[in-house]
Structure formats: structure tokens, C-alpha cells
Design brief:
With 204 residues, this protein is α+β, with helices and mostly antiparallel strands. It has one domain.
Length: 204
Amino acid sequence: MIKKKLKNKHIDNFRRVILADDKMAEAEVTLRMAMALIEGKHVSSDVVVAIDGAQVKTLKTVHFPIVEFLASQGWQGMGNPGWQGRYENKNYSKAITVHSLPGEGDLVARIHSGLNLRMESKKGPLTRSKSSQEYRLIREAIGQLMTVKKAEPTDILAVLVPHSEKFSSLADQWRERPLMKKAGIHIVTIDRSNKIRGLESLGI
């Protein structure tokens, strides 16, 4: 009972300190998408996530403690020496593999159709920002997606951002732009209940 109380206190403290009410970190965006794909049984493979080490820690400053975050969501590291490695949840057969190699996309997973989902993620505000940074963030993600070093003929390309009123409005508009349609780029949002929006055409 004491151990359980301590664990719950640790998780509550983590959520209060790390998960700001008004924004989502890029690592959180990507990991929530990975969890949502597995929990929704949308994938036929493990989900591979790439996270830049600078998003996690610089020198002695921890920006986003991945191990603790995933543990708070029910995902446990499988003997990983640090934050990179394999994470499993006893309720699901598929795992999340976290690495820091650039150039392959922030999230890669094979869906049941046999196609490969390749995504570039961005952090962002959950409330409307005065600087309208949502425009810049989506455009940056599109540029990064189009310049990945590794791609497959079966790839479905997608930009992933937090779900908010502004991001949702932009996604609705830009999905219909002619060059976005021609390139086949999806704009996807994820919220803190791990609800995915923007991949309905794929059955997700």
C-alpha cells in the first residue's frame, strides 16, 4: 500500500510539473501518437519513435523525462540503459521503440493495410497563441517530412501536431490545398486523451 501511494504521488507530481496546461512538448506529441496507434489496434508492427536527445535533456537540465512519462501511461522500459530502447504495456502485444537517429521520421509504423505510416511531429500550444506559431510549426514539419533521408514506396506521409482550436482549423484548411493533396501529405492532430484526428481515410 505504501509503495502504491508513493508511485501515485510520483505520477501526479510528474504530470503537474511536466505536462503544462497550455502546450505539448514534441516528445509528448510523438509518444501519445505511438500509444494511440497501439491502443487502437491500428498497427501490425511495433511503433518506432525518433526523439532528439536535446528534447529530453541538455547538460543537467531534464526537459522531458521519457521513462517517467511512459511509466505514468502504463508503458515500462524493458531493461533499457537510458531513455532509448523498447517499452511494453502488458495489455498490448505491440511495443514502442525509442531511438535518436535522425532522417527517418519522428514516428514510423506499419498499419494493417500493409502501408507504412511515416510522420514528422511538432510541439505546440493548446490555446491560441498570439504569435500564430501554429502556421510556422506545420510548415516546418512539412519541410522536414519532404527531406527525410529514408522513405519507402509504401509510405503514407503525415504531419503530427497537438490538437487545439487553431491547429485543427489550419489542418482542415490545408488538407484541401492542391499541392498537399498531390503530395499525399496528411495533417494529423493528437490530444491528451490520445484521440487521433486526420487519418479517418485510412480507418484510423
